[in-house]
Write a structure and sequence with these properties.
Length: 401
Amino acid sequence: MSKIAILGYGTVGSGVYHVLTENADIITGKAGESIEVKRILDLRDFPGDPAESLVTHEFSDIVEDAEIDIVVETMGGTKPAYEFVKSALMAGKSVCTSNKALVADHGTELIRIAEERGVHFFFEASVGGGIPILRPINRCLVADKILSIKGILNGTTNFILTKMTDEGSDYGEALSEAQALGYAEADPTADVEGHDTCRKIAIMTALAYGAQVDFEDIPTEGISGITADDIAYAVKLGRAVKLLGLSYRDGEKIYAMVAPFLIGKESPLYSVNGVFNAISVTGNMLDEVMFYGQGAGKDATASAVVTDVVETVKNRDIPVKIRWDEKKLVIEPKEEMKSAFFVRVDEKEKASVSDIFGKIDFIEGVVDGETGFITGVMTEKEFESDIERLSGVRSTIRCMV
């Protein structure tokens, strides 16, 4: 029997307990032995909860308990999660976490400590919730040189953009509905400004290319500037606005970005709506594969955490190499990245647009007094230089090509 502890009994932590108890027979069969929750760390008490008697307020009750060999961390954030996880690993306990901030900030160090102590640090649920993506990158796509990763990695922003597209809502209305339904936090900044997506693409990029990626190095834009008029143009163009996290290889250079993009119907990401997430990985031999599912939610995320627990039990005495070196991966300057760009501009600027961008098909009849157009493929630096020559620019959105 394996005995585990859960740090944090919120949405995901309670979900882990639920999955372990509800599917105990299945999990025992897969793991080869039963898995029992011995302790749950939380500041609160939970009178009447099935796990009430397991709750402790002292981390020492867990880290000093020799019977506990696996710690599940679902607290979120980095304080005190980082110190608790590091202490658990140093004490010879494996750790499974859903905490993307912890992995993005300290993954390199925690992986190294786990290897030195002969234990495991697994974090499948930190990206994509219940979607299995990190283990495939680390184990299943090892014969390929990964050329690109791109995906819809945040259910909150995808829900908001879907509502704006399907119902003509403006951003504020869609955000309010997302909050009312529990899809968005009272302070939605991490989601809507792209910070959540940024950490996730940083983690995947680090695994894909085997080196540390500082998420601060990834240029990041959110969706708070997307308007109902932008969506109306997208609909007329037969495209959809999606917040994407992406990274790709060009020769030996690695590029990464988080930003809203206009996506055409030819892309499998076009039809990913609501709170669902999808991740596309392209390899030089396998070509493109797609991972799709619920990117968040209690049971979906908890399922991924419990899968890591089972993997830990099955590989207790077998080292599982995670290729994520401490050497920092250089993310090339945003200015070199290439895209096409959708632009909304005052109608009186049409002549100037043609002078600057050449032959252009204008998109008319969406908003009075303005027009839209899509540029050819160019670098970010070239676009910024050209767009500065126009007055009356109302918005710009990159186009996936």
